[in-house]
């Protein structure tokens, strides 16, 4: 009984620290620590996720994504049942059947299946500009990029961000590009798309995990010059 009381007190203390913390790195560390307290800690984290996403509906962030992912790895049946009850299709609920690919993308990302998520992302972008499965071309020209609807581009980017602790996403790549005065070589180096002045070979030389450099994923026609990526970084979605 004394040990359980101590665990409850420690979890309560850590949850208060989490609530007061504003630094993402510290928040993620605290979540991992609370999770390690077993069922009492994981129930507290599940309550926090339910409060953020369902009750107060705060702006979704990678904090929610990390909460969901770490709880998804729980061995406790009651935690798994709680996730299935409150978030049957993941953190973001897509109402239309037309959004099946977004549900699939969310499922891949929340399970850290980044290579498959990257392929689905490219497929979705092609479909958004009118290139269906019967089209011989499965890549985008720079003239295609402005036709990508802003809402779709932002949704794809959001999914990549919240399920990667804000490490991946087109907006992350754009941020790094702007921070390096729009210098492409510096971008490639920073996001790890080149090594020893050589472009990485797809797919085996790319890093499909959270150990990759910030901005490493998703890939985007990186072998077809800078015009397509330049068009993406200058898409109207980022300025609205």
From TrEMBL:
Residue intervals of the GUN4-like domain: 96-235
SUPFAM superfamilies according to UniProt: ARM repeat (SSF48371), GUN4-like (SSF140869)
Domain of life per record: Eukaryota
Gene Ontology molecular function terms on file: tetrapyrrole binding
Signal peptide residues on this chain, from the entry's feature table: none
Keywords: Plastid
Pfam families found in the cross-reference section: GUN4
Gene3D superfamilies in the cross-refs: 1.25.40.620, Gun4-like (1.10.10.1770)
Keyword Plastid belongs to the record: yes
Annotated transmembrane regions: none
This protein's record includes keyword Nucleotide-binding: no
Matches recorded under InterPro entries: ARM-type_fold, GUN4-like, GUN4-like_sf
PANTHER family (UniProt xref): TETRAPYRROLE-BINDING PROTEIN, CHLOROPLASTIC
Name of the featured protein: GUN4-like domain-containing protein
Organism this protein belongs to: Hypnea pannosa
